# Entry
Amino acid sequence: MEERLQRLIRDIPKAENHVHLEGAVKPELILRFAERNNVQLPFSDEEGAKKYIVDNTQSLDTFINVFNVVNSVLRTEIDFYELVMEFAKDAQKENIIYREAMFNYAVHATKAISLETIMKGLSEARVDALKEYGVDICYIAELDRSKNSEWTCDFIREISRYKETAPVVAVGWALGLEGAEDKNYKAKEFGEAFALATELGLRKTAHCGEAQGPESVWEVLEHLDIDRIDHGVRASEDEELVKVLAEKDILLAVCPSTNIMINLYPDFAHHPLKYFKDSGVAVSVSTDDPGFILDDLTNEYMKVVDALDFTETDVIDLIKNSFKYSFIGTDYLASVDEWLDENGYA
Ligand SMILES: [Zn+2]
# Structure
């Protein structure tokens, strides 16, 4: 790849739309939190942690086991605070200025951790992250698929109290505690919950079209009032669906590395990201779970460019999309344009 393109990817102000806080706990942090909270782990050092993660993330179902092990170490307000501060520090290193971080309260509720404990850690860290690292973090509260509509509606009412303070800007239909995109989890059962989120002024996204095929994306479009889709990559198997996504201007927050990690595609060259872009579907690139892919957003872009022949203009489009379709508005787009101008890329 030419130096000019590498420099663009490395230095331009970036944003990330699809990243899970629990999937961002690096081995070093897992060990630190486990020791502090007296949690037993199936490994005892960083190398062991990395091997455990690599060995157990080859399918979406075993991936859930790793997710749960990592989650078992997160216990106190200070853990959540430190996790977000590390998350911001990492972001600063690669010029990510805005990050939308998802968190799954249902997972932490099984450890009897209160929502207030988590939210205190998250909102304090948010303020300090902005001050210390210049990284703006907003939160997306995940709606666990294995919960019923009543639980989900109660949770949305409760989480909407943190709309201004945390800030929780959106809700996202995501992983289920008892499995991934299990066929038993139906989007239509969450229609009421999504309508409530709309009423309470929260933005909305949903994971679909990853482990399950295009039908899961159709189902989400039919039953859930969404602004964006997380993954959605298997929509590429249905031409009509691709057209609808382009027409409705729904962003797919795509994470090639985790798709490849769970064996959805053999490598970057077979990933449909370019196909979506060429078909007029809005796409952005994210890491999903940097702690599991053991890599960062900059490298994700580098791999996309190498394998899919993305040009300088394509990369700029992807980066602008991550700001343009963000849940806090488009204010940061001006700093991207300014950077492009100042660095001779406009
Ligand atoms: Zn995800």
In short: The chain has one domain: 3-327.
